[in-house]
Design brief:
Elements (H helix, E strand, L loop, with lengths): L10 H17 L5 H10 L3 H13 L6 H15 L4 H18 L2 H4 L7 H14 L7 H16 L5 H13 L6 H12 L8 H12 L4 H25 L3 H13 L11 H21 L1
Length: about 280
């Protein structure tokens, strides 16, 4: 799923536009309504807490790659502590309040120097706080934008991609690594043409990513089904060499024990077994 950036929901942009509006009103000799709005929505609120994450990002410059990566990861983790429902409600009320005193089109026309970085941070925060799985390429693109902002230099995409894989590996406890790693490989074209059985496998692993017992049962069920399909297929094959190969593959299909830990390799194996089964069926089925 692709996360679309919205300047109307971007806390960093909303805060900066209000500050600029206060300045513009003051220069015009007006009593700025933006001052009241800023105090009402950003003092001791979830919006205020989230703005601190944007402020942290934009206050750092000329960092090393390692420090920049730590800053980004820390900000993302901190965002998970915020009350998402309260944030959503406060943002809606904030826009409603701004619209009472200012023309929204004019208010949002102001060009901001840090717009790209703020948009990238918004997107990553939304991705990492969403229950839906997002396109890993979008994560990489936005992480590169933030790294370049923090380090003030061009960032190598391959390094970010490798770093992202390592990051997901560290989530081994809840098995998110196997989901994201396969998805990343899928978006890179390795599994660009999944058949129905492969899509079913991938869907189940995603839906049951937090339940190792459920995945283990599912895996063993599929292994049994594949072995049965290969056995039936082998009866139709007249070529002895192919018979031997099918038998060898069947021997490799072993179920997991209750104590076995299911991981990324098991998922990849299932996808490959189904690919092999499809090829054999198309030739000999």
């Amino acid at each position: 799923m692709i996360i679309n950036h919205s300047k109307y929901k971007n806390t960093g942009i909303l805060f900066e536009l209000l500050v600029r509006q206060i300045t513009a009103d003051s220069l015009s000799g007006k009593d700025s309504k933006a001052t009241h709005i800023l105090k009402k929505f950003f003092v001791k609120t979830e919006l205020g807490k989230e703005y601190k994450l944007y402020e942290t990002l934009l206050s750092k410059k000329h960092l090393s790659d390692t420090k920049a990566d730590i800053i980004i990861n820390t900000i993302i983790e901190s965002s998970k502590q915020l009350n998402r429902k309260s944030l959503k409600r406060q943002k809606y009320n904030l826009i409603n309040e701004i619209s009472k005193h200012y023309d929204l089109d004019g208010f949002f026309k102001t060009k901001l120097p840090n717009y790209k970085a703020q948009a990238a941070l918004y997107t990553l925060i939304e991705i990492y706080n969403s229950e839906n799985l997002s396109n890993p390429d979008q994560i990489i693109t936005n992480k590169i934008s933030l790294l370049e902002t923090l380090t003030n230099k061009e960032v190598n995409e391959k390094q970010v991609k490798d770093s992202l894989l390592e990051e997901f590996k560290s989530y081994d406890a809840d098995l998110r690594s196997l989901t994201y790693r396969v998805l990343l490989e899928k978006f890179n074209g390795k599994y660009s043409n999944l058949n129905d059985n492969q899509r079913l496998v991938l869907k189940e692993f995603i839906n049951s990513v937090d339940s190792a017992p459920t995945l283990r049962v599912f895996y063993n069920t599929k292994i049994t089904e594949i072995k049965k399909s290969l056995s039936n297929l082998n009866k139709k094959v007249t070529d002895k060499a192919t018979n031997i190969k099918i038998n060898e593959v069947s021997k490799m299909l072993t179920e997991l024990n209750k104590t076995d830990r299911i991981d990324n390799d098991d998922l990849v194996n299932l996808l490959q077994y189904y690919e092999l089964l499809e090829e054999l069926t198309s030739i000999h089925g």
